[in-house]
Task: inverse folding
């Protein structure tokens, strides 16, 4: 009984750490966007600092997951949870790196981004942050339907992403911004969009944890929950 | 998976089921059944005992009467036997029958029957009869048996009759059928049965009444206790009956009253606490060791920008995952006080929360490290931080704004000094520059002083009825020269129109009009126009003054900030035109001090319209107390 309780405690600990990492990624997404738009070098530094912390957390959490797998030899949903947690862990770490990339552009950019770029970029960042938030929500609540919502959100983010690439092109052509800054815009937008992609990875892992199905490369299964007759 | 507690949570499963036992038969029925049963048992035992006693008594009676009969007859029989007078003996026997002695037999010692009341002689020898045997041996014999001659059961009593010499001369035997006694027995039993039959319903009734008397209060109390257990205190029993039930009832009643009072006061204090917490502007979150929400007030939702406050029992990380809040929480759960830190909420709005955490109930128990929980207090400091920022910016701006003309003055003066007597034209130009920049410096200082005075005055501004047109006209004449130089036409409301009287301070209002008109002229296009109109909103008791120009307009993104001190739409240009950067700030402060409002609309390329709303003066020209003027 005590062993079992210990195991449950370990699982709760894994979950808590994942939630903490999710919070850090959300913070990094928001801060990196803000630092770029306001050319706040100090804030950018904070994001880079936060990413280092996130990296440490990732390593620690990976060790905890492996320890739990090795010592407790979990079955069924607990095993799926730990396997999923390992993947989500590395996804979150990668998302932190990408946010870090956005923040680092702050040091390279030559002028405060033009409002035509600033507003949609803030919206993109908010949409991506919402995806991160909801994918972690789906994990904590074991909510496959919410995870599927995150995929749907990703379609919107991709659309914004394409629109913003066009915008950057226009800004460059019209000479509204210099080529250097425009390429920085493009890099920032791309990194931001990649964070959204990682959020969909998390959502896929959540579906795996909840339903035990690998839906990564199956567009149909991504959308539809399993039919009741199990087909 | 659920987070498991480090210390096992106390089992909440009820050790006692709510209903202790199936109710079965009602109490009153059980009591009356018991009473009835005991009555029946008592009746049975008593009946049996009385019956046996009566039968024994009757038998004894029978024997006694037989013995008495024998005693009475013995002398006559003795005479008959000694004289061998069978006639006499026979007549005794016959007489005995007639007297109800039923059966009389006289037997010789050898067993020969010499007289018999029932049967004719000769009768076989009675020598072997046990009563005869007993009588011969002991003088008296007794037996009970079925007669060989008749089929009835008889009770026989035999008496040895001794002669004068002491030798037995014969035996006198009297018998009576037991039937007589038995009939009497049956009578007794029947009577008792009838009595029992009548007694039974009475006993049942008495039992039922007694049962009701005991059971009813108990039932009432049971029902009341059940209701109380379910939380219903509306039917507290009022002390039923006397004795134990009464005492129990009154105890129950008292308990119910106290319990309901206690619950009510607890509920009330809980509601009060919730109301107090909900009325707080600060978000208050109580969190337990497992980071589950114990309590959250309404402001939490507002502070965090979520739809509803987190439900008690939910994990905090499901609601909010801001790293700073988690850090504060962990620190407090570790038993340390976490002083407030600023947390910027994600999103474009950039709201700032001050988040502090306090550990609650640090347990002294060994092996219990850290706190039992923590209280997080969230305070929305967005406005406070913005104000602080504004003040810091203001100081930086003032320094900058004062420095720029000062640098020009110093530069010019130093140049003039270095030039000496050479280049008089350049010297004159430099001095002119120094003078111009000196005036600018003076204008800025004037404006700053005015602004600070207006701010200090605030609500204490002296106000009275002020005719609008007079102030507007004097402001127009102040900017007339400038307007003429730029070819801008000023148009005021026609003087014929009735003047509008507002409640205000004439000097300050003139400053408003001067600043607005000066701006309208300054930023107008050449040959443009400035139109001032006045309208009255009688419903709101307010006058609206609008100043419209035909200038370049103000870009939309600058509109929210143009009333800030030193804020310039086009930094270089307005300074060149001699603005201090404080004109509109002064306008805003004066209008706000008048409890009025100022709005601006602008279309780039077409011009801007500034609308000032001021309260109308009341009929009587006195400054009314606050609140009367709206």
Result:
């Amino acid at each position: 009984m005590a062993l079992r309780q210990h195991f449950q405690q370990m699982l709760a600990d894994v979950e808590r750490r994942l939630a903490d990492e999710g919070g850090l990624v959300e913070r990094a997404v928001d801060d990196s966007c803000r630092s770029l738009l306001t050319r706040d070098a100090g804030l950018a530094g904070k994001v880079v600092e936060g990413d280092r912390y996130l990296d440490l957390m990732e390593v620690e959490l990976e060790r905890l997951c492996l320890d739990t797998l090795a010592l407790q030899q979990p079955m069924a949903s607990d095993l799926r949870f730990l396997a999923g947690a390992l993947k989500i862990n590395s996804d979150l770490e990668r998302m932190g790196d990408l946010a870090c990339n956005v923040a680092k552009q702050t040091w390279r950019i030559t002028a405060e981004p033009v409002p035509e770029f600033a507003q949609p970029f803030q919206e993109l960042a908010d949409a991506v942050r919402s995806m991160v938030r909801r994918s972690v929500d789906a994990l904590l609540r074991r909510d496959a339907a919410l995870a599927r919502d995150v995929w749907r959100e990703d379609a919107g983010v991709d659309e914004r992403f394409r629109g913003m690439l066009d915008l950057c092109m226009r800004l460059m052509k019209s000479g509204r911004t210099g080529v250097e800054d425009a390429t920085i815009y493009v890099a920032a937008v791309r990194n931001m969009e990649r964070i959204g992609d990682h959020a969909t990875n998390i959502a896929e892992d959540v579906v795996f944890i909840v339903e035990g199905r690998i839906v990564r490369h199956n567009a149909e299964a991504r959308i539809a929950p399993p039919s009741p007759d199990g087909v | 998976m659920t987070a498991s507690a480090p210390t096992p949570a106390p089992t909440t499963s009820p050790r006692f089921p709510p209903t202790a036992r199936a109710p079965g038969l009602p109490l009153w029925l059980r009591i009356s059944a018991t009473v009835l049963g005991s009555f029946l048992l008592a009746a049975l035992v008593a009946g049996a005992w009385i019956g046996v006693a009566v039968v024994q008594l009757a038998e004894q009676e029978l024997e006694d009467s037989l013995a008495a009969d024998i005693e009475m007859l013995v002398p006559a029989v003795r005479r008959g036997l000694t004289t061998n007078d069978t006639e006499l003996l026979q007549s005794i026997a016959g007489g005995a029958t007639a007297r109800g002695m039923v059966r009389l037999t006289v037997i010789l010692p050898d067993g020969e029957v010499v007289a018999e009341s029932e049967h004719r002689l000769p009768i076989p020898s009675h020598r072997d009869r046990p009563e005869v045997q007993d009588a011969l041996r002991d003088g008296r014999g007794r037996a009970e048996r079925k007669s060989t001659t008749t089929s009835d059961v008889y009770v026989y009593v035999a008496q040895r009759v001794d002669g004068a010499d002491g030798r037995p001369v014969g035996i006198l035997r009297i018998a009576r059928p037991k039937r007589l006694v038995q009939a009497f027995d049956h009578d007794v039993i029947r009577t008792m049965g009838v009595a029992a039959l009548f007694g039974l319903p009475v006993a049942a009734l008495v039992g039922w009444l007694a049962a009701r008397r005991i059971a009813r209060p108990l039932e009432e109390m049971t029902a009341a206790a059940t209701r109380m257990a379910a939380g219903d205190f509306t039917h507290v029993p009022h002390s039923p009956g006397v004795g134990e039930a009464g005492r129990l009832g009154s105890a129950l009643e008292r308990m119910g009253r106290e319990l309901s009072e206690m619950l009510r006061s607890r509920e009330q204090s809980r509601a009060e606490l919730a109301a107090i917490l909900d009325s707080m502007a600060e978000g208050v979150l109580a969190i337990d060791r497992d980071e589950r929400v114990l309590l959250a007030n309404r402001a939490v939702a507002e502070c965090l920008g979520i739809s509803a406050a987190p439900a008690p029992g939910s994990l905090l990380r499901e609601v909010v995952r801001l790293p700073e809040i988690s850090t504060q929480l962990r620190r407090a759960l570790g038993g340390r006080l976490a002083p407030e830190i600023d947390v910027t909420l994600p999103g474009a709005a950039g709201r700032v929360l001050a988040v502090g955490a306090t550990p609650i109930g640090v347990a002294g128990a060994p092996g219990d490290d850290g706190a039992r929980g923590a209280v997080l207090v969230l305070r929305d400091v967005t406005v406070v931080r913005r104000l602080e920022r504004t003040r810091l910016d203001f100081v930086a701006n003032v320094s900058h704004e004062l420095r720029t003309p000062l640098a020009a003055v110093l530069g010019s003066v130093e140049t003039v000094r270095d030039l000496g007597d050479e280049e008089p034209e350049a010297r004159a130009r430099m001095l002119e520059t120094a003078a111009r920049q000196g005036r600018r410096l003076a204008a800025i200082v004037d404006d700053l002083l005015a602004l600070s005075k207006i701010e200090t005055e605030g609500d204490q501004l002296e106000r009275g009825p002020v005719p609008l047109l007079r102030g507007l006209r004097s402001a127009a004449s102040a900017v007339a020269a400038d307007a003429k130089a730029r070819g801008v036409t000023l148009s005021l409301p026609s003087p014929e129109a009735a003047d509008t009287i507002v409640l205000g301070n004439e000097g300050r209002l003139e400053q408003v009009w001067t600043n607005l008109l000066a701006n309208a002229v300054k930023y107008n296009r050449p040959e443009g126009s400035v139109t001032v109109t006045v309208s009255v909103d009688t419903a709101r008791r307010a006058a609206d003054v609008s100043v419209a120009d035909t200038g370049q307009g103000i870009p939309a993104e600058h509109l929210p900030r143009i009333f800030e001190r030193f804020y310039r739409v086009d930094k270089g240009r307005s300074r060149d035109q001699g603005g201090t950067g404080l004109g509109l700030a002064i306008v805003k402060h004066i209008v706000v001090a008048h409890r009025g409002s100022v709005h601006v609309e602008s279309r780039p390329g077409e011009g801007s319209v500034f609308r000032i709303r001021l309260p109308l003066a009341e009929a009587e020209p006195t400054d009314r107390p606050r609140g009367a003027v709206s």
